User: Fold this.
Amino acid sequence: MATDSMSAGEAPNEVVRESALSSGSARLTTADVYEKLRRKILDHSIPPATKVNIHHISQEFGVSPTPVREALRLLQGDNLLVATSNKGYATTEILDLAGVRDLFEFRLLIEPWAARIAASNRLANPAKILAAELEHFDTSTDSMQHTLISHDSRFHNAILASTNNQTVIQAFTQSHCHMHLFRIYSLDWPWQATIKEHERIRECIQAADPVSAEKAMRDHLYGGYERFSRAVAESPTESIPLRAAGAAQLVAGSQKT
Assistant:
């Protein structure tokens, strides 16, 4: 059940404490409000299952309710908010262990295949994009969670984009998997393992080695599942095995040679 982020008679909740206005500053746009609220939801400044009050947000951000409503609709599209019975919104729950498994089983169906296709097509090979993304990864950031969400999304989207399969790209985009997975972590994400695995994927794609690229992506996803599942497990021994053990053969010609 959603809990209200502010009780009656209290000052506006700290989840919207950042003021949008300082002397001489410009009024926030819908995109600004969206980004600020998105960041607060992902880092749990607005906790899961918490009601979001449009009036309080507009007051604290110094904007009219219109850009707030528009931003909330965008966040609902990201599956970070759900509509409530009183025409309001509440933040969604974070993924449980079964939800993490479902996302990784989905990813294992398409991403090893995408890595293989990326390494097979020398003209559309995204290795330079991947190398630039890794080179510019900022380890000195004040929020590793937000940095990783952005990096991971760009890295994996570049590989998927190189397949030019719009159905696969749209399905992946609509899963919002990076936001929902990294939302599990607010601190202490083991980012070094993620970057090392990304580097291995890039090496295989740059070498135009489809078999190794597919395997590197699969290994990365299994490693990611282990990390995320440990984060949400209620006990050290709790686990749900992945059911996607084999390679996905989405199209003719993706078989190993």
Observations:
- The radius of gyration is 20 Å.
- The chain has two domains: 3-91, 97-232.
- The beta strands are 3-4, 50-52, 81-83, 89-91.
- DSSP finds ten helices and four strands in the chain.
